[in-house]
Amino acid sequence: MIGNDIVDLKLASVQSNWQRKGWLQKIFTESEQDRIWDAENSNHMVWKLWSMKEAAYKAHQRLFSLSPKYNPNDFICTDSNVMVHNYNYQTVSKQTEKYIYTIAYTDQSNFISKVFTDKSLEYKSKLVYYIADVMNVNLSAVTLQKDRNGIPYVKIDNRVTDIAISLSSHGSFSAFTIDL
Q1: Which listed site, 28, 60, 98, 128, has its alpha carbon 20 to 30 Å from 41?
Q2: 5 - beta bridge partners?
Q3: How far apart are CA 101 and CA 108, in angstroms?
Q4: Given this model, what pLDDT does residue 122 score?
Q5: What whole-number distance in Å separates Cα of residue 48 and Cα of residue 46?
Q6: Helix (H/G/I), strand (E/B), else coil: 40
Q7: DSSP reduced 3-state for 101
């Protein structure tokens, strides 16, 4: 199972004042808050942990076909893992001065991930192209859709596949992760 999340650091700095009273407590455990305040760059640590929680949330939601639910304190971050209700999700994060991107997964599989640095929806068409190429099908046969819980899935020739995908966008950045 996979999930991903990307945070545009410039946009996050104007959209959220994470230092306001009570904000950290709503999102992060006490140990996560300690990590934030002890970090060399507290702002980056906030968004790294946020991204880890969001990526694991998407993987967990897909694994159990859950409806959307705001529950960030249920997702507990350690160095590179996120635990939720006795399920462990490993994470890999990439951090630049402009964005933080995290992939969460349950097992080391054959996932591919790509980050795009423009504001377009090009990442979805690139994903469709990639799927068509790997699956050796006509490009017009591949469609991306979302189920009633907002979880994206792939159809080929109007048939639902078991190809796991995760999509994320924020500000100037977008990304996909796919497990074939």
Answers
A1: 60
A2: 102
A3: 18
A4: 82
A5: 6
A6: coil
A7: strand
Ordered by start, the domain boundaries in the chain are 2-179
Phi first, then psi, for residue 68 (nearest 5°) are -60, 140
Q: What is the pLDDT of residues 140-176, one digit of tens each?
A: 999 999 999 999 999 999 999 999 999 999 999 999 9
pTM of this prediction?
Answer: 0.94
Q: What phi, psi does 107 have (nearest 5°)?
A: -150, 155
Quick one: pLDDT at residue 154?
A: 98
Helix or strand run (H / E) with residue 6: strand 2-8
What is the CATH code of the structural domain delimited by 2-179?
A: 3.90.470.20
* C-alpha separations of 79 from 73, 83, 86, 90 in Å: 16, 11, 17, 9
Helices marked H in the chain — which ranges? 9-15, 23-27, 30-38, 42-64, 122-135
